[in-house]
Prior knowledge:
The complex is a heterodimer of chains A (109) and B (119). Chain A has 109 residues and is mostly beta strands. Chain A contains no helices and eleven strands. Chain A starts with a strand and ends with a strand. Chain B has 119 residues and is mostly beta strands. Chain B has no helices and eleven strands. The relative contact order of chain B is 0.32. At the A-B interface, strand 4, strand 5, strand 9 and strand 10 of A face strand 5 and strand 10 of B.
Amino acid sequence: GQQVMQIPQYQHVQEGEDFTTYCNSSTTLSNIQWYKQRPGGHPVFLIQLVKSGEVKKQKRLTFQFGEAKKNSSLHITATQTTDVGTYFCAGRTGNQFYFGTGTSLTVIP
Amino acid sequence: NAGVTQTPKFQVLKTGQSMTLQCAQDMNHNSMYWYRQDPGMGLRLIYYSASEGTTDKGEVPNGYNVSRLNKREFSLRLESAAPSQTSVYFCASSEAFLAGRALRTDTQYFGPGTRLTVL
């Protein structure tokens, strides 16, 4: 069945270091979305990528969608303590979204 | 404008009991979703409703039923709760939905979640 794998599961970084999480799908995606979930909270939409090879930036966050529309990445430059949380990708195939397992980011001050 | 609301926030059930989780959105969204979140598993789609009057199974529908009561409300029912259904349940909505097409308005807005424990 459809699977969206996300790595790493956990990442601890010193404040100021960079962070990257990767998503890989077993099938081609219509689009991919990224969400952030703070501890005890609910997922909050960050961005959507639709086109093959698309790159979008939001301040220190850079999102990429692979050429084959099967993989994506989120890169955070110079992490801050406010970046703490779990980052999920969600790929759309047909009528459904398939979420990755998430990457939990801890930022050490 | 409350966004997506869910009730209850917490619930403890005994095995075999039934309950209904309520979800409502005030954003005039067409599509609504129910997910469950388990540690290390991410979010898994249980059921979704692309538009008022339609419902479809997601990835993990067994043991659940849903009702799209009207455009605003989408409920999830556990007929006979099992310990394996212990989870955090999230409802979400999105503005528009068309099968097989990518839309700008595909953003999902999530409710605060319901923490369910089945003993």
